[in-house]
Amino acid sequence: MTDWPKARREEFVHLPIRLDLAACEDEASKLAAVETVTALCFEAGAAGVEERVEVDREGITQEIADAVELVVYAPRTGVDVISASVVAYPGASIGEPEAVEEVDWSRSWQAGFEAIEVSPALLIRPSFVEVEAKPGQREIVIDPGQAFGTGGHASTRLVLETIREASEAFDEGTRVLDVGTGTGVLALTAIALGAGRAVGFDLDPLAAHEAQAFALANDLAATFDIFAGGIEALAAEPFDLVLANLLKREMLPIAGALAACAASGGKLVLSGLLDVERDEVEAAVSPFGLSRASERSVLDANGDRWISLVMARR
Asked: Kind and range of the H or E element at 202?
């Protein structure tokens, strides 16, 4: 017999840690500091760590600000060990722990996930959400897991809208690239709406594995090629539609490579961006023969405005 039920009844707390990054020289050193402190928390017994970045007076979330708040989820009995491990790190300060209300995690994790009607021809849903598809409407079933992409995030929905619009011109010769594919939801959507073939890749081998599993489960694996690796591993043949739902800091270093993937007459869709990041990202890809064709945006529940740029080859 295990003592797991007893362990689950142990009181858990949220422990706030503020990390002053003003002394860091650049974005890379800020990111390294956050990752180091996060690792220290886990090594000391944390069950989870959430990063909360600062917001400015307009309510716009900054990517990596000069101060970052980490909220550590841990047993109350482990607070002292975690605090002792982190407090010596330069710029780190520890707040007072707050008790976490007990919830039924076996069910609560499913809250907030819903079916998404991409078009009259396509519905995306988790397996635990029961909804009746319309006559002739195809389903893609994707469950949330360790890879990003169930269609629910604002940035993902913006890309789904663009795919739906672009699908009016899809045929068997249409080739789609899904950069940082995650669960493969974007590529699978494109195939389900008529694209002839899609390629997806992710730096995370687990994500590539999950994308392959969902492709098989939805009978779409025959026209979806997936690999774990970087954009440099792609063959030279360009794509009609390139989908990149990434953070700005992931997107900028490969801006030229992303642009090169778009065929003559093709389009590059850049999502995962906040409104304040538009100009910097557009400026990064424009020198490679692309110009903005259209833009979508949406305001999320936190007040952040997400945008998706469609860049067309000139």
From this structure: strand 197-202
